[in-house]
Description:
Elements: H1 4-15, E1 19-22, H2 26-31, H3 38-52, E2 58-61, H4 64-67, H5 70-86, E3 90-97, H6 101-111, E4 122-125, H7 135-143, E5 147-150, H8 160-163
Parallel strand pairs: 1-2, 2-3, 3-4, 4-5
Amino acid sequence: MVSFAERLDDTFLQFGHLCVGIDPHPYLLDLWELDNNAAGVREFSLRVLDACVDAVGVIKPQVSFFERFGSEGYAALEILLERARQADVMVIADAKRGDIGSTMDGYVEAWLTPSSPLASDAVTISPYLGVGSLDGLISRALEEERGVFVLGVTSNPEAASLQSARV
């Protein structure tokens, strides 16, 4: 099995370092004359994916824009992930998950286990509950040849007060 890092390196060599975010904001759906519902999110994301095939090697869907439509939104995300797998486009699920170890196990099952309909090449996580909370997730990611992107210091201006706070 080829490691996540090797797959990512190969993708970068073939397509460059561009990763296309798929963030179906309501205003974008409106601009694209799509309904602000799960069907609109599905259509938007598949159009973006189609534009990426053979041009970009990595997409990063923002999971919250799918989750807001419940099971229908998750179904749209599952379709996007399956189509990306079929097109050999790598996926970083921008889920920003973070919790204690036993709960993180559930996130591993959802996002990093190959048999899951939400299986992605990598997932974003938040280490707010401590580095130790990531141990199981990182171990499983290595076993499954998947990647983990850990939020450290983020670029949003409002984060600075918390991320640099002295306690």
